[in-house]
């Protein structure tokens, strides 16, 4: 198949490389010339395990190219819409400007039989508007919705072997034909037995935000339990293990700690609430406001705990922050809980040094006033309290005995409950976890 991928950020770059790997001819389009130049040199503009190799392979096979000229999609019959839908500044709603400009550029180029496949996370109702725009410009073309569920750090496996594939289709023969075209695109995944669910357009758009809202709720639920554990002396990690044994609950996404961040969960639950308000159904999602507040409270709790550990004040105290990305195996610092805590502590007078294996460049751009160290030892040297805020394997595997002489005071707060408290205490450290005694 000849495919175009419009928008080559996180989602689009990975999708384009994976589709080329599956044997399709793919042209990736992006409005940022720098992004196109980097991708054309097989250099991913962000860190994602395996992507550089995949880009290299697909580009040397000649099946994958990148361009900033939308006219280059002319030969493609399937057009994936993968542009970002960030949160609007000072508002909760999603900013659809990139979706609109991409569609305005694409529709004049559509041919009869073309299929436009929306993958971006959009407020429900957007696809119906875009379907009308496509129909008006080219009645022989069809728009369908095919949400993605990829996790950063696992983006390639999630794209090639997703848990499920959802097709949101318009009614009638156009929908049936569009589904057949996408079946050809996903032939390899479908042949391996991955479930394919067909829905109407509205349901397909809702599947994505409903899934992310559920995941966010699960994390905030266990973090609310962590607050109760802190009030009672109980241990939230044992609690999560015990309730997670119930198949109906499940242990995944029950890791209490500093809470969720990144480019998806926080903005998606806020945009979902905003959209529900527009639809007159805001009451249905008021619980998400609480999910958001529980999540933000964890950051405040972390700063309070650090202050408590430093004897009541963090002013002038040397604080080491391990981790800047919003989660391990990613250099993404969007809405990073770790950086938010680091910045808050600096604002309150602490001398903070942040380190991270991948995200320092991005972190520095976003938080230029923070101090960074390229090495873990550099961040730890002279620290009066250590905060482990992103559970990179290199931090989880640190040997507490080897670090005692490096720090000024052996005190650590495990913001992701990923260390063995006994091991650290036996090495002479004062250890605190979130929601642990
Ligand atoms: C998420 C969804 O998982 C994915 O399906 C969707 O397509 C995009 O949004 P991602 O943002 O890459 O993916 O990260 P994810 O692995 O879901 O983690 C999100 C945040 O939750 C991270 O900050 C992580 O540290 C936090 N988290 C996750 C917890 O605090 N506890 C957990 O148990 C799990």
UniProtKB/TrEMBL annotation:
<feature type="binding site">
    <location>
        <position position="121"/>
    </location>
    <ligand>
        <name>NAD(+)</name>
    </ligand>
</feature>
<feature type="active site" description="Nucleophile">
    <location>
        <position position="264"/>
    </location>
</feature>
<dbReference type="InterPro" id="IPR014026">
    <property type="entry name" value="UDP-Glc/GDP-Man_DH_dimer"/>
</dbReference>
<dbReference type="InterPro" id="IPR028357">
    <property type="entry name" value="UDPglc_DH_bac"/>
</dbReference>
<comment type="pathway">
    <text>Nucleotide-sugar biosynthesis; UDP-alpha-D-glucuronate biosynthesis; UDP-alpha-D-glucuronate from UDP-alpha-D-glucose: step 1/1.</text>
</comment>
<dbReference type="GO" id="GO:0000271">
    <property type="term" value="P:polysaccharide biosynthetic process"/>
</dbReference>
<feature type="binding site">
    <location>
        <position position="152"/>
    </location>
    <ligand>
        <name>NAD(+)</name>
    </ligand>
</feature>
<feature type="binding site">
    <location>
        <position position="267"/>
    </location>
    <ligand>
        <name>NAD(+)</name>
    </ligand>
</feature>
<dbReference type="Pfam" id="PF03721">
    <property type="entry name" value="UDPG_MGDP_dh_N"/>
</dbReference>
<feature type="binding site">
    <location>
        <position position="30"/>
    </location>
    <ligand>
        <name>NAD(+)</name>
    </ligand>
</feature>
<protein>
    <recommendedName>
        <fullName>UDP-glucose 6-dehydrogenase</fullName>
        <ecNumber>1.1.1.22</ecNumber>
    </recommendedName>
</protein>
<dbReference type="InterPro" id="IPR014027">
    <property type="entry name" value="UDP-Glc/GDP-Man_DH_C"/>
</dbReference>
<dbReference type="InterPro" id="IPR036291">
    <property type="entry name" value="NAD(P)-bd_dom_sf"/>
</dbReference>
<dbReference type="GO" id="GO:0051287">
    <property type="term" value="F:NAD binding"/>
</dbReference>
<feature type="binding site">
    <location>
        <position position="261"/>
    </location>
    <ligand>
        <name>substrate</name>
    </ligand>
</feature>
<feature type="binding site">
    <location>
        <position position="334"/>
    </location>
    <ligand>
        <name>NAD(+)</name>
    </ligand>
</feature>
<keyword id="KW-0520">NAD</keyword>
<feature type="domain" description="UDP-glucose/GDP-mannose dehydrogenase C-terminal">
    <location>
        <begin position="320"/>
        <end position="421"/>
    </location>
</feature>
<feature type="binding site">
    <location>
        <begin position="253"/>
        <end position="257"/>
    </location>
    <ligand>
        <name>substrate</name>
    </ligand>
</feature>
<feature type="binding site">
    <location>
        <position position="327"/>
    </location>
    <ligand>
        <name>substrate</name>
    </ligand>
</feature>
<comment type="similarity">
    <text>Belongs to the UDP-glucose/GDP-mannose dehydrogenase family.</text>
</comment>
<feature type="binding site">
    <location>
        <begin position="149"/>
        <end position="152"/>
    </location>
    <ligand>
        <name>substrate</name>
    </ligand>
</feature>
<dbReference type="Pfam" id="PF00984">
    <property type="entry name" value="UDPG_MGDP_dh"/>
</dbReference>
<dbReference type="GO" id="GO:0006065">
    <property type="term" value="P:UDP-glucuronate biosynthetic process"/>
</dbReference>
<dbReference type="InterPro" id="IPR001732">
    <property type="entry name" value="UDP-Glc/GDP-Man_DH_N"/>
</dbReference>
<dbReference type="GO" id="GO:0003979">
    <property type="term" value="F:UDP-glucose 6-dehydrogenase activity"/>
</dbReference>
<dbReference type="Pfam" id="PF03720">
    <property type="entry name" value="UDPG_MGDP_dh_C"/>
</dbReference>
<keyword id="KW-0560">Oxidoreductase</keyword>
<dbReference type="InterPro" id="IPR036220">
    <property type="entry name" value="UDP-Glc/GDP-Man_DH_C_sf"/>
</dbReference>
<feature type="binding site">
    <location>
        <position position="208"/>
    </location>
    <ligand>
        <name>substrate</name>
    </ligand>
</feature>
<dbReference type="InterPro" id="IPR017476">
    <property type="entry name" value="UDP-Glc/GDP-Man"/>
</dbReference>
<dbReference type="InterPro" id="IPR008927">
    <property type="entry name" value="6-PGluconate_DH-like_C_sf"/>
</dbReference>
<feature type="binding site">
    <location>
        <position position="85"/>
    </location>
    <ligand>
        <name>NAD(+)</name>
    </ligand>
</feature>
